[in-house]
Amino acid sequence: MGKGICFVIFLTPTLLFSQLMRIGIFSRDKINRLTVSYSETSYSIYGDSTYIGEINKNDFAEIQQVESNKLKLTVGVLEIGVFNSVKFVQNLTIGNLTLTIKNSDVKPRKYNGDFLFEVGKNGIKIINEVNLEDYIAAVVESEGGVGHHLEYYKAQAVMSRTYAIKSKNRHSKEGFDLCDQVHCQAYHYKWRFSNPILTAVKATQNEVLIYSQTHLVEGFFHANCGGQTCEPDLIWNESIPYLRSFKDTFCIFTKQAKWEKRIEKTKWVDFFQKKYFVSSEDEFFKSQQFNFKQEARLAFFVDPKYGIPLRDIREVFQLKSTLFSCSEEGEFVKLSGKGYGHGVGLCQEGSMKMAKSGFTYQQILGYYFEGTKIINLKSIVDVSKKDFKTTNPITFETYFENTTGE
C-alpha cells in the first residue's frame, strides 16, 4: 500500500447517503460478447439513451463488440442496431439479471440493479449500478460465505460499508467506483443470501467505523491471521495507529489456521541468488535458508541485512501468508505456515469464533481495531436541512490509494 495523496473533504448528504454504487463487474476478464437473460423482474433496454423495449421472462439479449468502440445489440433473434452504449434498467426495485460471458470458462453470474455496457480498454466494460445496502449484502456473502453467526455478519457489514464509502473513487478514471475483485472487495452477487446476512446489513444500516473522531478507518480484513495479526508497515511500509500486531487466540484452531507447501530446493536457491544476489559462499545464509524459524511475525527473511521482504517471497511462490518457517525434506524445502491473507485488520475466522462465543459485533470490531468506534452517519448529519448542518462539525480524511480488501 503506497502512500497516496491525502484529501480532506466535507461529507455532504449526497456523499454520505448516496444510495447508488457503480461497480465494475467481470473486471479482470476480456469480454467481446455476452448474453443477458431474464432472472427476476423485467428490465427496460436502452441503446444510446433511446428506449428499445423490455426483457421479460424467457427473453435474452446478446451484446457483442464490433468495430473498435461500438456494441451490437440483439434481442432474441432480432438485431436491434449498433450503439456506443447499452443500458438495462430495472422496472421494479428488486430483481436481477443473469450475465453469461461467451467463449469463456467464467461461470454465469446473477446481479441486482441496473447495467451499463460500454467499450473499454480490454473489451466490453460492464458497470453494475446497485443500491449501497444491496451491494454490502453481496460483499458480505462473497467475502464471508453463508452459515455464520449474526454478529459476525454485522461486523463484516460495518467493515465493508466503511471501505466502500472511504474508497468510492478508487476506480473513477475507469468510469466506476469499485471493482468486483479483492483489489477492492469481492462482489459476486448470488441473490441467495441467508437471513442473517440481510438482517445484519439492515441492523447496521449507515454504520461505519471511525478513529480519532474524524477519520474513517482503513477497512482491511483477511481470512486468518495465524494467531497473530500483522502491522501494516510489515506489508505496505506504512504505520496505522489503530492497527497493531497482537496475539489472536480465536483463530488458531480454525480451518485456515495452518498450511504447508513444498518447493524444489533448486528453485528456492535460484530465487535468492538471482533476485537478491545472495552469494553462494555466504555460509550463514546457506545454513538459514532451509532452516528459517518465525515464531512471531517478521518483515524480512533470515535477517534484515539481506533486504528480502517476506511479502515478496509470498507473492513469487504464491503462499497463503508471510507467517511461515522452513525445513529441509529431501530435494524440497518445506514451508510450514500459519494463516491466510496479509494478516492486517479484521481476522474473519477469528471474528467468526468470537461471534460464536457470544461477543457482539461492537466488541469484535473493538478487538481488531483498537481505539475506534462505530457511528451512524445519520446521527451527525441533519439531512432534512438544505443548507446541510451537523450536530458536531466533522470532516473525514479520505485516502485514494492502492489498498486491498484481501
Structure write-up:
The protein is of the alpha+beta class and 406 residues long. Among the domains are: 31-121, Probable inorganic polyphosphate/atp-NAD kinase, domain 2 (Tumour Suppressor Smad4, Sandwich), CATH 2.60.200.30; 258-338, no CATH class. The protein is built from ten helices and 23 strands. It has helices at 13-17, 132-144, 150-166, 195-203, 233-236, 265-276, 283-288, 310-316, 348-356, 361-368, and strands at 6-10, 20-25, 33-40, 43-47, 50-55, 60-66, 70-75, 78-83, 86-90, 96-101, 109-112, 114-120, 123-131, 178-179, 207-211, 215-216, 221-222, 258-264, 324-329, 332-338, 346-347, 372-376, 395-399. A seven-stranded mixed sheet has the order 5-4-9-12-13-2-14. Strands 8-7-6-3-10-11 form a six-stranded antiparallel sheet, with no helix packed on it. It has a three-stranded antiparallel sheet with strand order 16-15-22. A hairpin with a 3-residue loop joins strand 6 and strand 7. Helix 2 packs across helix 3 and helix 2 crosses helix 4. The protein is globular, with a radius of gyration of 24 Å. The chain starts with 5 loop residues before the first strand and ends in a 7-residue tail after the last strand. The model is unreliable at 1-18 and 382-406 (pLDDT under 50).
